[in-house]
Amino acid sequence: MERGFVKQLRHMQKNTQQNKQMSETKDTEDTQGKLWEVFIQSKKGLPFKHFGSVHAFDKEMAVQNARDLYTRRGEGKGMWVVPADAIVAVDPANDACFFEPADDKVYRHPTFYELPDGIKNM
Amino acid sequence: MDHLNLSKFCIRLGDHCLIMAHRQSELCSNGPFLEEDIAQINLGLDLLGQAEALLIYAAKLEGNTRTADDLAYRRSERQFHNFMLTEQPNTDFAFVIVRQYFMSLYLLKTYQVLAEVDDDTLSGIALKALKELSYHERHLSMWILRLGDGTDESQQRIQTAVNELWMFVGELYEEDALDLLAQQASYAPKGEEMKSFLMAQITAKFAEASLTIPDSIYMTTGSKQGIHTEYLGFLLTEMQYLQRAYPDAKW
Amino acid sequence: MGAEELDVLFQERIDANDKIEPRDSMPEEYRSHLIRQMSQHAHSEVIGMQPEGNWITRAPSLRAKKILLAKVQDEAGHGLYLYSATETLGISREELIAKLHQGKAKYASIFNYPALTWADMGAIGWLVDGAAITNQVSLQRTSYGPYSRAMVKICKEESFHQRQGYEIMASMANGTPAQKEMAQDALNRFWWPSLMMFGPHDSDSPRTGNAMKWKIKREYNDVLRKKFIDKTVSQAHLIGLTIPDKDLKWNEAENSYDFGAINWDEFWSVVKGGGPCNVKRLNHHKKAHKDGAWVRKAAAAYAKKHATK
What we know:
Strand content of chain A: 15-25%
Low-confidence stretches of chain A: 1-27, 109-122
Helix content of chain A: 25-40%
Strand order of the largest sheet of chain A: 2-1-3
Order of helices and strands of chain C: HHHHHHHHHEEHHH
CATH topology of the domain at 4-24 and 31-86 in chain A: Ubiquitin-like (UB roll)
Shape of chain C: globular
Order of helices and strands of chain A: HEEHE
Oligomer: heterotrimer
CATH architecture of the domain at 4-24 and 31-86 in chain A: Roll
Largest sheet of chain A: 3 strands, antiparallel
CATH class of the domain at 4-24 and 31-86 in chain A: Alpha Beta
Structural class of chain A: alpha+beta
Number of strands of chain A: 3
Structural class of chain C: mainly alpha
């Protein structure tokens, strides 16, 4: 099996177990909020560009935090904030037969990987 | 308004912003998470910018016998005219939010009126400040709701803050001779108008946030005559230290 | 494909100056090295807010206060860019903070020195940010994409910081005798710790080998240190301040300054926790974090109550 893929799965499994624990107690636990990816359109007519991420507990906060961080509240700049786990990412360089539905997350983010059942005992 | 009264008017407004900005600046590196640290510093920076612009203008109206820095760093406790609300300490995050929220409403209304005046300098300051304040109000309202309607602990803390800070709200719509002059010149809303605006906004927001306005009708007064709470002295001691310790130095 | 083949392919990409992105195949050691380096860089920005923030409330003019506030706000922002970049490697902000609190992650040792006078604001901006710039300009070419992009963003904002610091030093050096003395004193206390920011001699640094091989690091510690010294000495002389190094001497042949020995005992001691402010800095961070728990929980509770179905 492709080395990186195996390593990724192991890593995902470890983090998923940790984060499953975290998410079970998440409601009463103390977190830094959700991860949101920020896209900004610096001028009308131009495409939205990925700028980075922010943490926030809800979308209203995410927008404000993103503005404070990435635009110093520049007016008139279009902005999208997207929960990171809503993003589907594909890497064209990877061999298509190793494309796993569980592996379409935008980064190596552990907080939202859900492994298919068959992988549990790796 | 004649220059002397206009300068006093600008000093009052500048003082509110200056002292509030100072309290905001104390929050640096003490925020509940990093993004909020940045947000609070932002609020402080905006207020400081407004304070500087207003005090520079006030100094100019006085005939430049003093500079804006002289006004900020060389006046003593009884010469400051900031609302007592602005000097209240950052007891906890709820106190910070409630204090800033009340003041942001006051400033919004104040700047709305000033944006329309004939005086280009003042209307220019007000127009820029309005953009900033509407952002402040949105940010602070957001927290009023989240703390009021969050956990039991947050509800208790913010209600405590409201209860303890309420007595400082009366000054925000008080009127003295200078206020009446400003109103006559259309530089300020009438006291009743400010009061209804504040109460309407606060009542609506508090209803959403499950917060109550305290029953007590006792309101403090005196900042327009330079009477303050015991906090201002300590605040100024820190703020003015370098200029006082090295009176001949330029910074 | 076996692990060895993948290593070869990875190294080929590095050698070709390819940018490595979060989902790319990479040796586990590359990933863990980057997590450590980027998170420590992030922690440094955040902890650095403390010594600089120490003089915000006592800033001696409206302009100085505004500028210092803006600068410290930038540092917070830089911390956020770097946490953001670190998280792309599969670690959460909560974990990063926990590691900092447990002493498992470090931050730049320079921030374990106290900011004792207003002149320190000048020295920190001029020297500490100056050293950081020297390092960060080099890191713009680091192999990991998100780190490189964060460095580019940070470098754009950083030059204002150094100018701010130098302006303070210049005006004090040209001010009253008390101001000049204060400025020289700040330089005396911050010079050597700033040189230590570039790390140990490369021969004494166990991680340098991998860091250079994988192009995480693009220039050696001693090279960057020399660059900084050569840039900075004339800046001090221009405003009539003396570098506190009796062995500092221009070397015509090398077109560079020879300089005195760094106190490596002090360096290692501070790195290991024996600096004047280590305990204070961490306690401050822990306290702010603890005090903020109820706020974070309130925000989370509100979000849960109001989540759109």
